[in-house]
Design a protein that fits this description.
By secondary structure, the chain is mainly alpha-helical. It has 3 helices and no strands.
Length: about 90
């Protein structure tokens, strides 16, 4: 009887810990997406602001934004995070 109670307790503890980890993982994913998105927007704004100061044509700074390696990597990271978090967000 005591062994059965201990097994039940261990089972529920493991499930609670597993659920807690899933919740934390989802929170981590949300926070990561949020931080990466904010950084990406700041970087795009910085490129736009500098381009405006230099009086570059719009198509040129759009080209810079579309071909910037760091922005490309940020977009890929956001896509991967989106895939991990699933369709429910």
């Amino acid at each position: 009887m005591i062994v059965a109670i201990i097994q039940i307790k261990n089972f529920f503890s493991a499930n609670i810990i597993l659920h807690f980890k899933k919740v934390l993982d989802q929170q981590d994913l949300k926070l990561s997406k949020k931080l990466i998105s904010r950084y990406k927007k700041r970087l795009e704004k910085e490129i736009l602001d500098r381009s405006m100061k230099l009086r570059m044509p719009q198509n040129k700074f759009e080209e810079i934004i579309n071909n910037n390696d760091e922005l490309i990597n940020l977009k890929k990271a956001l896509e991967r995070l989106e895939m991990k978090s699933g369709p429910h967000e």
